[in-house]
Write a structure and sequence with these properties.
With about 260 residues, the protein is mostly helical. It has helices spanning about 1-35, 40-90, 100-180, 185-195, 220-230, 245-255, and strands at about 205, 210, 235, 240-245.
Length: about 260
């Protein structure tokens, strides 16, 4: 019976140590992530901005192509109208009566109106085309500037990732190993507390008779239970798992040797 009790105590202490070390590992991963700062989000936002500018450029280029086509069509219309006017004038020289002459005159007037309308449209389309071409030039410049900025941010992020890649991978591997020695219910609680805690701390020590997470006082009897390491105890106020500071120091000293 005593042997079983001793094994149970060792098991609980081992779980506490695994939880505490997992917290230290995850906190270190958090620290490495903080080194990246806002760069990951900035890279994403800048990438989205460049894609948006490129889409805008495509629309501008499509509109320019459409305007150029409209101008070309109106110029062809003017050529056709001039050809019709020349033909009608030639026909006027061979009319047999005033009625035929008047009809041809009306046709010439109509074609002249078509020419004026085409010229008006060409003027409008040309003005719009110039505006679109200016907008295209500005958009291209914006794309170039944003792309330079994007590449700089990517380079900064890649440098940080390269510097911390091996360390991060080692820490993640260690975290997975530690998780194997932690009961699922405690692991789920650990992950839930970390997710909700502002500083990501799910396991904390007792410092100056208080929880190092929320700083509320821990009753003396509860502190004694924590020092005995015979059961997993959580803070009544914040729900964080509490560990004996002496145990934490022992682990830190062992890790530094």
């Amino acid at each position: 019976m005593a042997k079983e009790k001793q094994e149970k105590e060792i098991t609980i202490e081992s779980k506490l140590k695994a939880l505490y070390e997992l917290q230290q590992v995850d906190s270190e991963i958090d620290r490495l992530r903080v080194l990246q700062g806002e760069l990951p989000q900035e890279v994403k936002d800048k990438g989205d901005e460049v894609e948006g500018l490129r889409f805008r450029l495509q629309n501008i280029e499509a509109e320019i192509k459409n305007l150029e086509s409209q101008i070309s069509e109106r110029r062809v219309g003017i050529e056709q109208a001039n050809a019709m006017i020349a033909r009608y004038k030639q026909q006027q020289d061979n009319v047999r009566n005033n009625r035929e002459y008047d009809n041809l005159t009306k046709e010439i007037e109509f074609q002249n109106s078509e020419i004026e309308l085409c010229q008006k449209r060409i003027k409008e389309y040309t003005a719009s085309l110039e505006n679109h071409q200016e907008e295209k030039a500005k958009t291209i410049k914006s794309i170039e500037e944003s792309t330079v900025d994007l590449n700089q941010k990517k380079a900064e992020l890649n440098d940080i990732l390269a510097e911390t890649k091996q360390e991060t991978e080692n820490l993640k591997a260690r975290a997975l190993e530690l998780e194997k020695h932690i009961d699922e219910r405690y692991l789920n609680a650990f992950n839930r507390i970390r997710k909700n805690a502002r500083n990501g701390l799910a396991v904390v020590t007792v410092e100056r008779d208080s929880c190092a997470g929320c700083f509320n006082k821990i009753p003396a009897q509860r502190q004694l239970d924590i020092r005995l390491r015979k059961k997993i105890i959580v803070c009544e106020y914040c729900g964080r798992i509490l560990v004996d500071p002496e145990m934490a120091n022992e682990m830190k000293n062992a890790a530094n040797k």
